Amino acid sequence: MPSHSFTLNGRRVTVEAPADMPLLWVLRDLLNVTGPKYGCGVGACRACTSHLDGDEIQPRVVPVADCAGREVTTIEGLADGDRLHPVQQAWLDCDVAQCGFCQPGQIMAAAALLKKTPRPTDADIDRIENVCRCGTYSRIREAIDKAAAGS
Amino acid sequence: MLVLEVTPANKVVVRLPRVEVGQGVTTAVAMMIAEELDARLADVDIPLADARSEGNQFTGGSSSDRRRRPENPRVTKVVMAADVRTAVNPRGLQAQLMGTAVDGISTILRAGLHIDRGAVRESSFADFLPQTPSGGTPISLRSPASGTPRSTSRRTSCPPTAIPAAPGELGVPAAAGAVANAYARATGTKPRRFPLNF
Ligand code: FES
């Protein structure tokens, strides 16, 4: 079984897994990092959204071999120690979560957006396609605007 | 030409080049203007304009509302009120109502399944098109949910001592019906098949 090493939330990890195993299985089942959620299994609902070298990815559709030597960040690694990421803080302030299942992915998508586009327009926010069954969309928008205004 | 005047006393006056013969056109126009300007209906005054040479002094009952069949109808504002008796967690209640509004909007506008020769065409969320922030259907909800808890308690009717009722799916049928009715009002066409964007 090939082994793959990468940086996960600032820590170097090595796993043994088939090269084409989705990163999501590696994170959740082998490394017990369960922030990225398993929703649709095809990269459509985006509940698993995380970052690879700072860019948004859906770990369900990224093979672990593609991550070798790179930096994977999940919701668990977004905060700076005890200091929440501005997006996380805005999420708390706006009380965004309902059932919460989609929220790690929503936050990671918003953080990736703000990194590239610190002052997003409505149209920029429209491009986030993460699905929320509870329909928290208007508070998501509110929180992104708040995080953008604060940074 | 229409002139919309805001007087120093903060009244909105529009002289309407139409004839009011009981069809309610002044009320309909006043409501639309109040809605667009976030003004109080009582502050909008619609006197009838003097007769004009271009001869457009019709009753206007049918044309005072926008008559069109939009390609991609969207909901730009939702106002909700709910009586759940006691709101145990007002922010949670607001959130749930917003969710039900999103569901109602989705159901009417675009969330549907196609059956191709007996099989469902849509395979997952990506083609089922529930309401999301994307997809050209932006919504800005102004429900009891927006604003501070203070303004919420003013806008939701919750007598403080009654036993709480479950808000669960409360808003879905109301929101769906409201969106379908709004579409009928905006276009002059009563929709009978849903979703509208299919
Ligand atoms: S908070 Fe429940 S699915 Fe988004």
Keywords:
A: 151 residues, Ubiquitin-like (UB roll), DNA polymerase, domain 1, 2 domains, 5-stranded mixed beta sheet, 5 strands, B: mainly alpha, Aldehyde Oxidoreductase, domain 4, 3-stranded mixed beta sheet, 5 helices, binds FE2/S2 (inorganic) cluster
Summary, kept brief:
The complex is a heterodimer of chains A (151) and B (198). Chain A is α+β, with helices and mostly antiparallel strands and 151 residues long.
Overview of the structural elements:
The complex is a heterodimer of chains A (151) and B (198). Chain A is an alpha+beta fold. Chain A folds into 2 domains: 75 residues, Ubiquitin-like (UB roll) (Roll), CATH 3.10.20; 65 residues, [2Fe-2S]-binding domain (DNA polymerase, domain 1, Orthogonal Bundle), CATH 1.10.150. Helices cover 33% and strands 14% of the residues of chain A. Chain A has 5 helices and 5 strands. Chain A has a 5-stranded mixed beta sheet with strand order 2-1-5-3-4. In chain A, a hairpin with a 2-residue loop joins strand 3 and strand 4. In chain A, helix 2 packs across helix 5. The radius of gyration of chain A is 15 Å and the shape is globular. The relative contact order of chain A is 0.16. Chain B is built from 5 helices and 5 strands; from the N terminus they run E-E-H-E-H-E-E-H-H-H. With 198 residues, chain B is mostly helical. In chain B, strands 1-2-3 form a 3-stranded mixed beta sheet, covered by helices on one side. In chain B, strands 4-5 form a two-stranded antiparallel sheet. Chain B folds into 2 domains: 53 residues, no CATH class; 143 residues, Aldehyde oxidase/xanthine dehydrogenase, molybdopterin binding domain (Aldehyde Oxidoreductase, domain 4, 2-Layer Sandwich), CATH 3.30.365.10. At the A-B interface, helix 4 and helix 5 of A face helix 2 of B. The site of FE2/S2 (inorganic) cluster has 11 residues of chain A, from loops. Chain A: Keywords: 2Fe-2S, Iron, Iron-sulfur, Metal-binding. Chain A: GO terms for molecular function: 2 iron, 2 sulfur cluster binding; metal ion binding; oxidoreductase activity.
